[in-house]
């Protein structure tokens, strides 16, 4: 009762200085979970990004009425298809869930018996071929569906023992009658090129699933992977799109999207009275109504579907250009403030793709300070407010500042705290 009373107060204030200086206490503070400053990126563990005001308003409005979720997903499918250049689309509960549903769709198709047997019981056609250099901890999503990953090729360039990467003939040789799909992890340095992998897949009539979860911005990447031959593409909805954090996009072939939708939706229906939207689910191609699928736990609320569609519509080149200019300004505040600090060297790192995220790399000088990058990051987290920094360069003695969730005010706080920690004993 006490917790609910605290939660329900929407206008609580606390003194922040003199008697006339008061500020609104956030819902997180009232619940005892202080907000943090996120200078680390669009990370799920930190809540992704702040949703756009238009998205929040749309979700609030969507919460006031009820609609059939399959019809709402059909509307979303048309919006996703238009934005991504695909035949169809589905709003998923994150990009990882999208990969699991993609694997399930490739293994089961529109066979409701195979759907019922997943995970792991759809028959021999349950292998997914993946380049060894594309393996990562997120490909667990394929194994959740019951798929077996078949690694191919090598990346001789990474350890410096050679000049070659996985080649098309190696992928082709790994495809058998048991192959359900080829998995591809998109990145600026991914090899072989997706177009090469797609050509092999088309020849062998095997679908390609692309993990493009973090490949936005730029907006052009919404269409890029389908254009390069992907059959299914999973994209996060709660990162650069600034939609609901728990959403994702699965775009691709209409038959595979239909299978994914059938394995995600509430299927407590009778076949005789079931009237699914025909542009999402081809009822006439089914032998009956499938049971709840393995993706039933990946349900997406009506509010999230609406929020994702609104966010997708707002993700334009004009907004991307404005965001990029703002990000540069934010990073310059910190970079300029660190120029006279002898203990670090701050360098602006431009994005690999136009209108992508620029970063600020802060390299500690071991000759000037005994403080390690690990210690600096830990100290920043322990302060109030806690500040989270990018950790991908820690092994090399550096930290990264990501601008996605920063503004001028929070950038100055990050700068002040960095200087304080660097100058502390």
Salient structural properties:
alpha/beta; about 425 residues; disordered N terminus; 15 helices
Q: Radius of gyration, Cα only, in angstroms?
A: 24 Å
Q: Beta-strand percentage? A: 15-25%
Mind describing the biggest β-sheet? 7 strands, mixed
Shape estimate: globular
Question: Could you characterize the architecture of this molecule?
Answer:
This protein has 425 residues and is α/β, with parallel strands linked by helices. It has 15 helices and 14 strands. The two termini are 46 Å apart.
Overview in brief:
This protein is α/β, with parallel strands linked by helices. 37% of the residues lie in helices and 15% in strands. The chain is globular.
Helices and strands in order:
Elements: H1 2-8, E1 13-15, E2 22-24, H2 27-30, E3 37-39, H3 53-62, H4 69-84, E4 88-92, H5 95-108, H6 112-117, E5 127-131, H7 140-144, E6 148-152, H8 168-174, E7 179-185, H9 194-204, E8 208-211, H10 221-227, E9 232-236, E10 248-252, H11 254-262, H12 302-314, H13 317-337, E11 344-349, E12 359-364, H14 373-382, E13 387-389, E14 398-401, H15 408-423
Parallel strand pairs: 3-13, 5-6, 5-7, 7-8, 8-9
Antiparallel strand pairs: 1-2, 4-10, 9-10, 11-12, 12-14
Helix pairs in contact: 3-12, 4-12, 5-11, 8-9, 13-15
């Amino acid at each position: 009762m006490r917790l609910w009373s605290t939660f329900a107060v929407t206008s609580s204030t606390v003194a922040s200085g003199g008697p006339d200086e008061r500020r609104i206490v956030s819902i997180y503070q009232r619940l005892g979970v202080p907000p943090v400053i996120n200078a680390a990126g669009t990370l799920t563990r930190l809540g992704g990004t702040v949703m756009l005001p238009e998205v929040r308003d749309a979700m609030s409005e969507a919460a006031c009425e009820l609609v059939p979720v399959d019809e709402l997903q059909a509307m979303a499918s048309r919006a996703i298809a238009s934005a991504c250049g695909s035949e169809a689309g589905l709003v998923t509960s994150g990009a990882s869930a999208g990969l699991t549903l993609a694997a399930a769709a490739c293994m089961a198709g529109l066979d409701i018996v195979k759907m019922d047997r997943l995970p792991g019981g759809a028959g021999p056609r349950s292998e997914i071929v993946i380049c060894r250099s594309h393996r990562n901890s997120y490909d667990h999503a394929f194994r959740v569906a019951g798929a077996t990953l078949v690694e191919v090729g090598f990346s001789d360039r990474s350890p410096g023992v050679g000049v070659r990467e996985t080649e098309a003939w190696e992928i082709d040789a790994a495809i058998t009658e048991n192959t359900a799909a080829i998995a591809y992890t998109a990145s600026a340095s991914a090899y072989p090129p997706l177009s090469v992998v797609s050509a092999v897949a088309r020849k062998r009539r095997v679908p390609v699933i692309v993990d493009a979860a973090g490949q936005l911005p730029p907006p052009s990447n919404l269409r890029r992977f389908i254009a390069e031959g992907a059959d299914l593409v999973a994209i996060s909805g709660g990162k650069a799109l600034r939609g609901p954090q728990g959403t994702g996009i699965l775009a691709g072939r209409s038959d595979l999207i239909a299978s994914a939708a059938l394995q995600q939706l509430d299927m407590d229906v009778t076949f005789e009275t079931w009237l699914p939207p025909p542009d999402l689910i081809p009822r006439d191609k089914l032998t009956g109504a499938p049971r709840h699928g393995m993706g039933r736990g990946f349900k997406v609320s009506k509010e999230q579907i609406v929020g994702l569609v609104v966010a997708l519509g707002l993700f334009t080149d004009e907004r991307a250009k404005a965001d990029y200019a703002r990000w540069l300004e934010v990073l310059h505040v910190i970079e300029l403030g660190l120029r006279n600090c002898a203990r670090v060297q701050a360098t602006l790192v431009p994005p690999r793709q136009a209108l992508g995220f620029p970063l600020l790399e802060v390299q500690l000088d071991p000759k000037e300070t005994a403080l390690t990058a690990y210690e600096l990051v830990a100290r920043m987290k322990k302060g109030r407010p806690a500040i989270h920094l990018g950790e991908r360069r820690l092994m090399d003695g550096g930290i990264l500042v990501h601008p996605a969730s920063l503004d001028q005010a929070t950038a100055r706080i990050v700068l002040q705290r960095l200087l304080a920690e660097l100058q502390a004993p």
